[in-house]
Amino acid sequence: MSEYTNVLVAIDLSEDSTHVLQRGQAIARNHGAQLHLIHVIEPLSFAYGGDIPMDFSGIQDEIQQQANAQLERHAQNHGIDAQHRHLALGRPETEIHARAEELGADLIVVGSHGRSGFALLMGSTANGVLHGAKCDVLAVRVLK
Ligand code: AMP
Fold first, then answer.
1. CA 13 to ligand 1 centroid distance, Å
2. Which domain CATH number covers 14?
3. For residue 53, pLDDT beyond 90
């Protein structure tokens, strides 16, 4: 069996993130692969831009600072150095695919909620990452 060489773990910074990251880390360790960690911040303007006539920049800065601190905490807890942490801004699926290609990742690890029904089998982000990925994708089941 060929080994993975470059594993990219995507976390949404929810309480599931530690579990998803630990799975990714175990696989990377077993394969002797490099481990990268990414979180993508979705700009508020994507959700509210057209509807609410308001300047989001202050809140957006605050969100970015918080996300950065949380990403750093996860990375430090798992011994992932600064060059292997990635904070991106945009749509999660798009940014995860782009960073995976840039890094030459051969495995992307995401969390997936075990909701019933095919459409709900995977959360929308996990599903989006799976479709269009140019490498393997592992969906780690998270309970909720
Ligand atoms: P969801 O589809 O939102 O239930 O998320 C499922 C999984 O997709 C999460 O466990 C993460 O692995 C990944 N994910 C969701 N949102 C993000 C995000 N903003 N940045 C990085 N990964 C994410």
1. 8
2. 3.40.50.620
3. no
